[in-house]
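Design job #97: recover the sequence.
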């Protein structure tokens, strides 16, 4: 079981100012990443930014100044991903570790779905959002049961092309509401 020691306050100490982020370039092939995974991570942050009604604004930064970092984990480092707290120049931050899962079968969009939704889920934790019991939420936890293949499959069925990922955020109405509530409480 993961421990989530983060709070939305790390993002909100900036108010509506910029939140610096960094996504690891895909240079360590042993992680299974591909160059397009960086874009999937960026799209996940854009989805949260859009859902924030202007309260969050992510801007690219170098690794040393990024308070939110997405890195590609090795296959043996977990199931899909985890979020851990970090400190960046005296300020709270988060590192999102994403394990690349390729289910095989030659469906590149399913692979990209898994990477994108993992980035989206784990960056939600970085923003202070907890797991939910609602299977429709991106913040849903498989600790409550549920069909993992269907969780990713229902999103995959919305996609005809990779660019469709930008059209379908993967956030439920409840995810958006939880983010807005968290932002209001800070």
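Job complete. Output follows.
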């Amino acid at each position: 079981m993961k421990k989530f020691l983060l709070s939305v306050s790390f993002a909100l100490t900036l108010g509506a100012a910029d939140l610096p982020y960094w996504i690891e370039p895909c240079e360590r092939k042993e992680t299974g990443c591909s160059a397009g995974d960086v874009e999937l991570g960026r799209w996940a942050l854009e989805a949260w930014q859009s859902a924030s009604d202007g309260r969050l604004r992510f801007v690219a930064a170098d690794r040393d100044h990024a308070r939110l970092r997405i890195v590609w984990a090795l296959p043996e480092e977990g199931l899909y991903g985890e979020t851990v707290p970090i400190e960046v120049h005296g300020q709270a931050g988060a590192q999102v570790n994403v394990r690349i899962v390729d289910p095989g079968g030659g469906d590149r969009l399913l692979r990209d779905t898994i990477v994108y939704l993992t980035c989206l889920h784990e960056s939600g934790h970085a923003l202070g959002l907890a797991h939910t019991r609602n299977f429709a939420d991106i913040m849903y936890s498989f600790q409550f049961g549920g069909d993992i293949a269907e969780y990713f499959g229902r999103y995959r069925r919305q996609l005809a092309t990779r660019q469709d990922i930008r059209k379908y955020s993967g956030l439920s109405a409840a995810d958006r509401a939880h983010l807005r509530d968290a932002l209001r409480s800070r």
